[in-house]
Amino acid sequence: MNVKIDTKEKFTVITPNEAEISANMTGELNDLLLGYLNKDIPHIILNMHEVTLLNAKAAESIASIQHHFYEKNCSFIVCCLSETIENQLDEQELLETMNVTPTESEAWDIVQMEEIERELMSDFDEPEND
User: Fold this and answer.
1) Cys bridge to 53: 16, 20, 59, 105, which one at CB 3.0-4.6 A?
2) Distances (CA, A) of 48 to 122, 124, 125, 127
3) pLDDT band for position 49 (50/70/90)?
4) What local confidence, expressed as pLDDT, does residue 130 receive?
5) What is the DSSP annotation of 53-74?
6) What is the DSSP letter of 92?
């Protein structure tokens, strides 16, 4: 699978350079994305602007990966979906469970807000010393 990887200070943008993400690409995509959970900067933005066809299994896999990231307290945002893919995800009842933004810029904002939220929650979870 051909992807462009752009590492930023707080997150990595992964852009598949494929018009179609087929079922046989699902394993490779899983390995690539889940590998980021072991990196110093585990937060991902998956920019789908070049993808025009998404296999149903691949869609389910992306939704599952996103949930896995959030379980590990890491951000995973999907952005720039075509209307066709957005409708497909809605029909598969995946869209409302996913964190999706129309633009990459909005995805950046969400990652940064989630980072602030994690910092605030970690401060809140620490017991106070009297």
Assistant:
1) 20
2) 32, 35, 36, 42
3) very high
4) 47
5) EE-HHHHHHHHHHHHHHHHTT-
6) T
- Would you call 89 helix, strand, or coil by DSSP? helix
Question: Measuring CA to CA, which residue among 55, 109, 57 is closest to residue 79?
Answer: 109
Q: Is the pLDDT of residue 129 over 60?
A: no
Backbone angles phi, psi at 3, to 5 degrees: -135, 155
Report the candidate in 119, 89, 24 with the shortest Cα–Cα distance to residue 46.
89
Please give the Cα distance from 38 to 36 (Å, whole number): 5
- Spatial distance between the Cα atoms of 101 and 22, rounded to a whole number of angstroms: 22
Residue 32 makes CB contacts below 8 A (sequence gap 6+) with 1, 3, 14
Q: Which CATH class is domain 3-125?
A: alpha beta
User: In this structure, are strands 3-7 and 12-16 parallel, antiparallel, or unpaired?
Assistant: antiparallel
The pTM for the full model equals 0.90
